[in-house]
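ESCALATION

Customer reports they have been waiting on this structure for their group meeting. Please prioritize. Original submission:
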Amino acid sequence: MKDERSFIWPTLVFGCALGYFLFLRYRVLENPAALYPWDVAWYRDIIENGYRFDGNLFRNQNVAFMPLYPSIAAFLKTLLRIQNTSIAMTAASSLLTYGTCLTFYRTVAFLHGRRVALSAVALFLAFPYSFFLFCGYAEPAFTLCTMLFFHALLVSRRLWMAATLASLSALAKQIGIVLIGLYLLFLLHCFCKDFSKKQSLGNNRWLQAFIKTFPTLWAGLAVWTLYLYIRFDDPLLFNNILVSWTMTTSPMSLSPSRLLDSLSNMLYSLIIAIQYGKDSVSFAYLLALGSFFCILWATIRKMNLYFVLYALLLFAFNVCFRPNTMNPDLGRYMLLNFPFFVSVPFVLDTLSGRNKYVYWIGLAFIVIFFMKYQQDFIELFYHSQWVS
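Update from on-call: job pushed to the front of the queue and completed.
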């Protein structure tokens, strides 16, 4: 029987994950502050000094970062009167991640039952790259918007709320436009089902929902571009800087050369991963390959269709937007690809012969394996070392 009511177990799992992260941060690393380089430094700069631009598109600028996460962290810092910005960012990330876990559990429990839900949350928090959820990156804000979006769309069926969350997700990370696309696909699918019943266009509730919520879908990006236009006289400044920063001439492209570059990088990274194993962040490609087969199997086992579509859209965006995949972005993409964590219990259920004891032993083994690699990747991150 599908049950979505209990939050005790996901709360305990979250507490263990947060405790493990803090243990690694303060007991394993020589300098805990070293966990705050890269994007974290830019978010801290936004929180303390606001958005700035000196007119040079080819110099790294904090305007390249979306505003939702630093706004939440700045609000929490002011509300609780926290003096240390890094502590405020960790607190904001932890609260957002906790909200993500509860919503993730609630949504998956409603669709696939409590065992799958609890397993998915445990895998999500134990994942080798889950330390990004606690150390001041925008991933917690995006994942919370994503989980709330799916809950609104598939559980409570509140379309206006789903549209609002899709809009907010694009303010957390640019990849949030994936949720906007998924929302439109959902409406199109429902519209076609009703249209096949020979229902008139004027009475089609899905068409009416599209008309009512379409402005909401783009409201977040509209406000952000308006702010950039008023402040810096360039509504697409964040995108222009990001293009210059990543040295890509076109941020979104499905050209044959772009796809060929991405595939060749993937194959090369897989070779490195096999050769160096845990000493290379390219190990993420082995996980990505495994996730493909897990999601495929779970699809056969009737995992929710929109979970599968989300995974496909997320992968397509990642390939098109960042063809140079020899970096930690794939690991962060894997963290956002939550259908992978939902699909693993389906595979375990099959391999265990539906024996619950074998199932939980197998899950415990995977969680321990993930947690061990999480420590290895934190050490790589600590030393600013991405590829062996």
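Sent to customer with the following note: Residues 85-112 form the longest helix (28 residues).
Escalation resolved.
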